[in-house]
Amino acid sequence: MKRKVNRKQPNSKMCFVCGLKNNLGLKAHFYELENKELVAVFKPIKEHQGYPGRLHGGIISAVLDETIGRAIMMNYEEDVWFVTVEFNVSFKKPVPLDEEIKVRARVTKETSRIYEGSGEIALKSGEVAAEGFGKYMKLPIDKIADFDYGEQEWKVVPTEKDLKEIDI
């Protein structure tokens, strides 16, 4: 089913998942959808391999965690930052290296300091390859890291490949 993209989220310079200048990173782009879900899109490279031709389970976990973690950003105008408190993943099917991957996530519960979310990676066939569930604590960025927005190049970076709608 096609869903309209409402907004693209920022990328950074060196984050493993979203860093556009991290040569071994995923370089994922994040899109907020009309149905209140967030979708990450990326194409794995051979350095992301676990078993031959398969995406490493740790990378599957990382991209699920990041996508679920970012889903809370859709509910706020200002920057909202988070740290993972708890994360669980279930692996159902191998994720191939040779195709674009879409990770879908949503917030399932929110309190003033903690929120929960879930997400999944679906294969081209529509089968779910991995599912994740996490709990996250909202914190100001200065409580998490010494973060300089300019230095980290935290911004929305438009590309020719940006999606206006996503088939999920």
In CATH terms, what is the architecture?
Answer: Roll
What summary fits the major beta sheet? 8 strands, antiparallel
CATH superfamily: Hotdog Thioesterase
Shape: globular
H/E element order:
EEEHEEEEHE
Count of beta strands = 8
Spans of at least 5 consecutive residues with low confidence: none
Portion in beta strands: 35-45%
Rg (C-alpha, Å): 15 Å
Properties at a glance:
8-stranded antiparallel β-sheet; globular; 168 residues; 8 strands; single chain; Thiol Ester Dehydrase, Chain A; mainly beta
Question: How would you portray this structure in words?
Answer:
- This protein has a single domain, classed as Roll (Thiol Ester Dehydrase, Chain A), CATH 3.10.129.
- Helix content is 11%, strand content 37%.
- The protein has an 8-stranded antiparallel beta sheet with strand order 4-7-6-5-3-2-1-8.
- The protein is globular.
- The model has no long low-confidence stretch (mean pLDDT 94).
Describe the SSE topology.
Elements: E1 2-8, E2 29-33, E3 38-42, H1 57-71, E4 81-91, E5 101-110, E6 114-122, E7 128-139, H2 141-144, E8 165-167
Antiparallel strand pairs: 1-2, 1-8, 2-3, 3-5, 4-7, 5-6, 6-7
In short:
This protein has 168 residues and is mainly beta.
